[in-house]
Amino acid sequence: MKIQYVTENALQDLLAQHDAYKVHYLSRNEDWFKSYLAKEGVVLDSQIEYVHPDFSFNPDFSVSDLENVKAVYEALKHLTVAQATQERLWVGFAHLQMRDYFNFRLKDDLDKSNETRLKSALFFVNGAKRSLFVHVLARLWWVGYMTYDESNPNNPYWLTEFFCAREFSGRSVYFFSSNFTGNRTITKGVLRALKKLNDEGCEMKRAHFVEAGRYLNVVGGAMILDMLEEDEVAAMIESRIRKVFELQPVTV
Questions:
Q1: CA pair distance 232, 223, nearest whole angstrom
Q2: Domain ranges of the chain
């Protein structure tokens, strides 16, 4: 099938009239969606073909978030970075071809009429970069893209599995909000270091991820981080986390 997306006029209408339309999202009013999306000038077909992801609807999000990162990235791996930053693409998916997943993942927020989360899950209202990791569908692709490791053909999702093991929603936002974690080499270097420490028995929590980002911000003022190799980033972060949290190397 081909990817569908909303027109610019439709996007602006959905945003401008959100307060009026939100009741239909909260009540999962399928008749309203069908009527609105059938209007002329609302939906366009792209020339991009894809196989619909086999979503997991496991209510244990620690399981389904990981599975859905893999499913969405595998289905849409052929998207370019430029395409994957387009709000109309992800708004289209949330309203059209992936609305079932949207309703599943936002069920608690919809049931509680959490209007703030509804809007941020639908639209890019948190700035260009941050929104990619807040939007309920865009974040699946972007976490997959940023953590996928082509150098490990046996399991290219080994870093993805580590990253998604806990606090997926919050971790996606606070980790990828750093300017430096927009670079895949740096991201994978950081995650390699944190996973190594985690595998040693030092459970990596929010503080460790935050410290890694803080350290990169400091070091970035003295060197060009984009010139570093993945191994160099991993060594730097491992050393920093060991020092700050007083973690001793494992002796064999």
A1: 13
A2: 2-126
R_g (Cα) of the chain, nearest Å: 20
> Predicted confidence band at 79 (pLDDT cuts at 50, 70, 90)?
very high
Rounded-to-integer distance, Cα 174 and Cα 143, Å: 12
Residue 171 has pLDDT above 70, yes or no: yes
Q: Which amino acid is at 69?
A: V
Query: Using CA atoms, how far apart are residues 5 and 25, in angstroms rounded to an integer?
Result: 18
pTM of the full structure:
0.95
Closest CA to 186 of 137, 146, 136, 131: 146
d(CA 220, CA 216): 6
d(CA 231, CA 4) in angstroms, rounded, equals 40
Alpha-carbon gap, residue 246 to 104, rounded angstroms = 41
Strand locations in the chain, DSSP E? 2-6, 43-49
3-state secondary structure of 6: strand
